[in-house]
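Lecture 7, part B: from sequences to assemblies.

Below are the input chains for today's worked example.
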Amino acid sequence: MQATRRPKLSRAEKVEANRDALIQAAVEVIGEEGYFNASIQKITQRAGLGLGTFYRHFETQQELFDLLLPVKGAELLDHLQKAATGASDFIEVELRGMEAFFRWARENPWFFRLLHEAHVAAPSAYKRHIENIAERFRRSLLRSWEKGELPAFEKAELETLTYLLISMRDYVYAEYVARADSDDSIADVIETYRKLITFGLRTSPTAAEA
Amino acid sequence: MQATRRPKLSRAEKVEANRDALIQAAVEVIGEEGYFNASIQKITQRAGLGLGTFYRHFETQQELFDLLLPVKGAELLDHLQKAATGASDFIEVELRGMEAFFRWARENPWFFRLLHEAHVAAPSAYKRHIENIAERFRRSLLRSWEKGELPAFEKAELETLTYLLISMRDYVYAEYVARADSDDSIADVIETYRKLITFGLRTSPTAAEA
Amino acid sequence: MQATRRPKLSRAEKVEANRDALIQAAVEVIGEEGYFNASIQKITQRAGLGLGTFYRHFETQQELFDLLLPVKGAELLDHLQKAATGASDFIEVELRGMEAFFRWARENPWFFRLLHEAHVAAPSAYKRHIENIAERFRRSLLRSWEKGELPAFEKAELETLTYLLISMRDYVYAEYVARADSDDSIADVIETYRKLITFGLRTSPTAAEA
Amino acid sequence: MQATRRPKLSRAEKVEANRDALIQAAVEVIGEEGYFNASIQKITQRAGLGLGTFYRHFETQQELFDLLLPVKGAELLDHLQKAATGASDFIEVELRGMEAFFRWARENPWFFRLLHEAHVAAPSAYKRHIENIAERFRRSLLRSWEKGELPAFEKAELETLTYLLISMRDYVYAEYVARADSDDSIADVIETYRKLITFGLRTSPTAAEA
DNA sequence: CATGAATGAGGATTCATTCAT
DNA sequence: CATGAATGAATCCTCATTCAT
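Predicted structure of the full complex, as structure tokens:
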């Protein structure tokens, strides 16, 4: 808010700012061209820094790549955390989180490429990120299960359920990005998702809710 | 030493054989080391051919990469086609297909890496492959829907349903690969999957089936 | 002598010729600028070849550096071999070899830098080369010793003698290079060397020869 | 904690101390890793100073490198000076100097690498150092010659003799370093050296001494 | 004077692609 | 058609040096 803080940056703050600039630049370059084409040249150029500066902050290119998803993923999860508070049951939590994610993804369009290519370009980071997500999901599912919200499943099945739901969600997210223009159609996708996780394929809602 | 039919290869057949050898070699190298490390050197070496021969069959490396998933994916789909015949409803078709896939994946361990890295390394091929799969899925779902097997959903929702189910299935497949050793645990994963798509999260099976 | 053999170079001969060109180019660049400044860029440029061609012949820059002294050293030793034949005693062998070396060094001015910097830049090659030289020296000394030409020394001392003589010779060589212009002064250096190894410091020639 | 004289350092003394620390650090780093790997980073780190401080004392890295051998060589020569006093003839001076050097080299193990790599990394310093050594040698030889100790040589030959003897001595030194463990074998090397410079190759000691 | 963050020139190496044989 | 030698653009990384604090 205070517009004129710029000259107040101390030495250490500038270092930190450069590091952040490099991370943000990397994230954007990867979003546009993929990990493979994200040369250090391109990253430092976009950050407005000299090539050599990169190596004052990261030992290797891979070190940075392995950092991006954890850092940016944590920012995302923090953001989603807030959105979910106050939801009554698991499905509501899930659908609210989805909406919050959509808003966030609109501002951070590089995120999907960063995430998906990490599977190949930064596998350990990818696993860590998925595990972070799964962890929250798992806890959320467990709470619901303990309240009796998941009558069809045994406790031991929650683990598998976690990953099945994450997989679907990932698809819905991808669709969201693909159809970023039309808010209508994405609403339909969410609704179909809601029905599938609520009632499954076979049961007619009316029968089940009866 | 055994002459075994070698001289029977006509000129054109030899060309075809070399092309196939390159495709198979590529698929194996990628399975072991990923697209990024699948240099043309390595591919031609494994195919037992000269480096330059590659360019007799493919204009660029990317052209081959873009070919692999469609070619190998089609082989897979042919294989699965047969397994599904005779199934009575959608869920049975799906579960039978899964089993058939597991058998096939055991013999073609390179497939998952080929598939997943294609998302990054050969995006157009990836999309085409997903589209091929979706096409069959969609038709299968439509048939079921027409028979009234999916009472909760409208016709327009089948498209979304297709991708949601593919996403989950992909996860189950990945789990299968990860746990290649233990057949037990994978059966549990399938069972959870079956319940989720059959009844959803909320409904207790007994209630629904009643 | 036959001026028009050039087009007769077979495929394999051209490869060999390129390899030789790289070695010769390296040797010259090192002679002029030292190992440290002998970048692959410079070497391939002087050889009239593309940068990448280097790596078809040598795995790394160090591999080439480790090759140079052995290769060129062997050429030198072959050259000296011939010059020594027919000499009667050790000292005559030594002095004749020196002259032959001087003639060779005039045509191969890069040799000294190649040799001396190898101590730092290619230590293993350096050791091998010194050992090659020592080997011949040692044998030559032993033959003389067996003929009673070295009355002051026991057999066990020949090893040390070998290296002491090599050290001095190296200096005389270095002087030769430094004074490449004047043939007179180098003759004086040789003469002083001859007297030192013949009579030592203390003995007057006349007394000893009496 | 112990205040030991630290506060006594004046401004100028502190500057001097830093400069000395850099020189000593450089000498040690070079002794361990060679000139080529003696980055300014490493040198300043070992000196316990900031990287930039280097440039308060030396204009360039090369300037420091060119300083080291002269500085440390002078320290060595001062040390040897004392050892030689009282020797009666040239050969005794020489052998006493050798022993003194061995003792010094044991405490300053970095010296040989500093010296030998200087030939490549700091050629002008190398020449200056050799010249310093030669200067003392030359004077020593001249004194002996004037006393008639070198009957076989004319005055003009002393120059060459100087360098021949330095060369051999250098070899004996190198051997000393290589065999740092065994005092016996080094004594044998010295003895062979003594005989060579005393009697030459041809003369039997008894005959000559008769 | 001391510091260390920033810089970018320079160098080794890889690999898709071309082309003469 | 098959081959593999030659090519050079592109990339990562190092490190001496500069300069603002």
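Note for the exam: Chains C and B do not touch (no CB pair under 8 Å). Keep this in mind when comparing with the next example.
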